[in-house]
Specification:
3-stranded parallel sheet; single chain; 7 helices; mainly alpha
Length: 196
């Protein structure tokens, strides 16, 4: 509330990090209020910024987060640790206008809105696609990881053993392969009932 912006080490920090860490890639969480100077710094150092699909269906200014507006210098997320799961967000966090926009953009999704968003993220031109496990598993608000500004009850969700099934792994692998997010030689052999 009483904070202020203070200049940081800027280029010097990233130069030192690259020197110390070699070719380790970076990406920037550039969500919220970001100044032109920050964008310029990110671009100078070729650091991808973030795009969150859940943010893309509000007013026209939010459409920069939709796949058709993304560029390779982005990391796309269905949602982040600070968002509700995609299913939880769909069930209780979207307005009717957002739902209309989402339906217009993704069409009907027989396997759920979470899979529609997973496909959007994977199909985008963003250099990296990040999908929270809660979205892969189709979980709702009970699996939300964090609620910003709430001091208790966060980061308690845990993956349950056995939740990742061979069918789910095959579905993810097939999507990763067709969207060029996984080299073909890494794919497990298809099961006998696999339909390409």
């Amino acid at each position: 509330m009483n904070g202020r912006w203070v200049d940081g080490p800027k280029d010097e920090l990233f130069n030192k990090l690259r020197e110390a860490l070699g070719g380790l890639p970076f990406f920037a969480e550039d969500l919220g209020y970001i100044t032109p100077a920050v964008h310029a710094l990110r671009e100078r150092h070729q650091i991808p910024g973030c795009a969150v699909l859940q943010f893309g269906f509000g007013d026209a200014g939010a459409h920069v987060y939709l796949p058709h507006r993304l560029t390779p210098d982005r990391v796309v997320y269905t949602g982040t640790h600070d968002n509700d799961t995609t299913l939880g967000w769909w069930n209780s966090g979207t307005s009717e206008g957002e739902r209309r926009a989402i339906r217009a953009y993704v069409g009907e999704s027989a396997d759920g809105i979470h899979w529609a968003f997973i496909r959007l993220a994977q199909e985008s031109v963003a250099s990296l696609s990040v999908v929270p496990l809660q979205d892969v598993l189709g979980l709702s608000s009970e699996a939300r990881l964090n609620t910003p500004s709430v001091s208790e009850g966060n980061f308690r969700w845990r993956y349950q053993s056995g939740s990742l099934t061979p069918d789910l792994a095959e579905k993810l692998a097939a999507l990763a392969a067709v969207t060029d997010r996984l080299p073909q030689h890494v794919l497990p052999p298809p099961s006998e009932d696999f339909v390409a």
